Amino acid sequence: MADYRPIPDERVDEFRAFVTYAFRPESGPYDPEEADELPAPARIGERRGLFDDVSDELLAVCRHYWFDAQVAGQLVSTAGLSAVASPPENRRQGLVRELLAESLAEYRERGVALSVLWPFHTPFYRQFGWATCNKIARTQVPPEALQFVDTEEDGRMRPLDPDDWSAMAEVLAAHGTDYELTLDRSEEWWRKRVFHSWDTDPYVYGWEDDRGDLRGYIVYQVEAGESDGEGQVIEAHDFAYTDREAERQLYRFLADHDSQIETVRLYGPAETTLLDRVDDPEDVTTEIQSGPMLRLVDVTGAIAARPFPDGTSVDLTLDVTDPLVEWNHGRFRLRVADGRAECEQVDAAGAPDVTLGIGALAQLFIGYHDAEELVAVGDCSVAHDDVTDALGAVFTGRDVFLREGF
């Protein structure tokens, strides 16, 4: 038997050894005598572990982050799950499955509605009920191709420091209005995760207008090229602006690196428009990648936490399968009216209106897929076409973009 509980500070070296072997095995065995001080990003979140209930041996580990994420215009309690690791001698014993189930139980007890993670391998977490919630556009462009920018306003680019976090948060809130899963970052997150990295800290610059208002920022690192002969690359992982003029100013800033940088690499929502804005589209290479994964912690709690469109109403039964926790497995009655929903587990009498897995329900919930798309890809079945229309009225497709890595 295993005991799930926090990993105390005095056992942090065991946690670091597990994570190092899982994610950076090429660095060799973790040696606490030679280890550097914990980097700033590692000092956020809460460590959890499975311990042998007899020997107290640590068997598997993970880390939890506590967020509020935008869903349908409202902040919803969300847990970030990361650093899931076990040493090779403990694998194939169901320990990670148990760790994930215990994590969901803790989230449920805390009233957390959603769980998000960045998978090392999408099928691995799909088997436990998580599902892809957004795609990412990885765009590469030479900086000189960004010289198409014609700026209109006076202002200046300047280096930003951690004390600028509040102004940056306002920029992110404005830019993230159109995207589900935009996080309401804490001051600690800004200071320790935006301005610091695991290895080399990033550059952080912002554009402020002639009134001194910050209207855009960019967080980036300068790295060697991915292949021999490729020059240096700007990797911009966080790029936000309040309006199109601020966006243009950020592009101009990147273009001004043309004597120094060979490639600019941007990460953003899949519906990027840069391809349509440069003079020569052949200068731009965009690769669409699968991104983070989402699942509902508790079906009834998550649906109750989410607002719904005014003027819509449904009364449907859903058969939900959950491979990990029993409280989400079964039949639910969903009633939506006046912008709010009630969802309760009911007896499975007769045929359901909708049949789907917990991952597909999460995609419907967040807007990654609407009902018609889910039915088309085979992840959802409905009793008749009117059910698809009813689901589509209350769960509309929306743009989703979780930009924070963890």
TrEMBL record:
Keywords: Acyltransferase, Transferase. It comes from the Archaea. It comes from Halospeciosus flavus. This is Enhanced intracellular survival protein Eis. GO terms for molecular function: acyltransferase activity. InterPro entries: Acetyltransf_17, Acetyltransferase_Eis, Acyl_CoA_acyltransferase, Eis_dom, GNAT_dom, SCP2_sterol-bd_dom_sf. Coiled coil: none annotated. Residues 2-184 form the N-acetyltransferase domain. Its EC number is 2.3.1.-.
